[in-house]
Amino acid sequence: MKNLKFSLLIYSLITVLLSGCAAKESAIKQQSKTFAKGADVSWLSQMEATGYKFYNDNGVEEDCLKILKDHGMNTIRLRTWVNPSDDRASGHCSKEVTVEMAVRAKKAGMRVMIDFHYSDSWADPGKQKKPAAWEGHDFNQLLQDVYTYTFDVMSALKAAGVDPEWVQVGNETPGGMIYPEGSTANWPQLAQLINKGYDAIKAVSKDSKVILHVDQGNNNARFRNWFDNAKANGAKYDVIGLSYYPYWLEGNPDYTLSVNDLGNNLLDMASRYGKEVMVVEVGGEDNKEQNTYDMLIAVQEKVRAVPNGRGLGVLYWEPQGARSWSKYGLSTWENDGKPTKALKAFLSK
After folding, report:
1. What pLDDT does residue 253 have?
2. Rounded CA gap, 151 and 204, in Å?
């Protein structure tokens, strides 16, 4: 009888454990199906370090992440730089700060995206300067640099209990990254650098989805050219990431003149390459609240319209980056420390 009771006890324990595992797996799958609405808040630690205070809609001081979450956001994106300075405008995004912010986002119940710039400072269409510590390295060493650095940051995140849902290899890379070796003038080398980042990410967190990111999300020719080359050269990735800033487009910045092109490009990318797509950066104008609100509603609709759930979400770039602190005019924050009406667009279904 004792043996029977013991066996029944063991059976019950195993059943409970398996049930818990199944529930966790189900929760993870459900989260991955949830539309991502979020923000890159990489300035946040700097803003707080300089004493900036955030206030909710009622004027009560509150944690910025809670304010964002209360406005419908469920995802936080964080850029990471190799050896950044402590400069107010161009520092702070070190591995240590990235891990600290990622842990904070997870504790707040947010999903996490990591954005590797592979630079000591801003990497974007205008500049892709390699880290100072990598200067003078031959191409084989650069490949190892990318792998080692990516693996190190991903391992630090994992050790802190964070497995990012998405990870970018490069930031806004229409001309490539880690110049000059990783320029699109030499696609075979660029693809190798991308793949080293991809391999390092998957070695640490196999379920993290790897994003390749190009700007001007409404420009289909730009995207076809870039991702055709990526395919031809064997670049590995899971998601096509797009930026969409009507303000920075040539000519009239009225979003109504380009948002349909964005929608068509999203559809084409998903169909042409069989990949998921995501607007990983979007921005309006802080002094045009209604226009920015309307634009965000329209962008979310375009992403949701991608068939088979391949439109993953929309992330605003530095919504909390108030002009009074950053001199940046495309946030969704008032000078009094409160969010503008535009942020409420993420409360839409």
Report:
1. 85
2. 7
pLDDT band at 26 (very low <50, low <70, confident <90, very high): very low
Shortest CA distance to 213 belongs to which of 180, 169, 183, 178? 169
77 Cβ partners below 8 Å, 6+ apart?
38, 39, 40, 41, 42, 112, 113, 114, 115, 280, 315
Alpha-carbon span 34 to 162, nearest angstrom: 19
Active site residue 61: no
- Cis preceding linkage at 307, omega within 30: no
Tell me how crowded residue 63 is: count the other CB atoms within 10 A of its CB.
14
Q: Cα(254)–Cα(128) distance, rounded to whole angstroms?
A: 29
Q: Is 172 a catalytic residue?
A: yes
Residues 6+ apart with CB under 8 A from 190: 176, 177, 182, 183, 184, 233, 235
pLDDT at 221 over 80: yes
- Confidence at residue 2, expressed as pLDDT on a 0 to 100 scale: 45
Alpha carbon distance 65, 76 (integer Å): 9
Whether 174 contacts 122, CB under 8 Å: no
Per annotation, catalytic residue among 165, 276, 281, 289: 281
pLDDT tens-digit map of 245-258: 999 998 778 999 99
Residue 78 and residue 101 in contact, taking contact as beta carbons nearer than 8 Å:
yes
Residue 260 to residues 2, 33, 236, 265, 266: CA-CA distances in angstroms?
A: 71, 24, 28, 8, 10
For residue 3, what are its two tokens?
């043996």
| Candidates 172, 181, 276, 289; catalytic one | 172
Q: In the CATH hierarchy, which top-level class contains the domain 36-347?
A: alpha beta
Tell me: pLDDT of 260 over 80: yes
Report the run of H or E that residue 143 belongs to, with start and end: helix 139-159
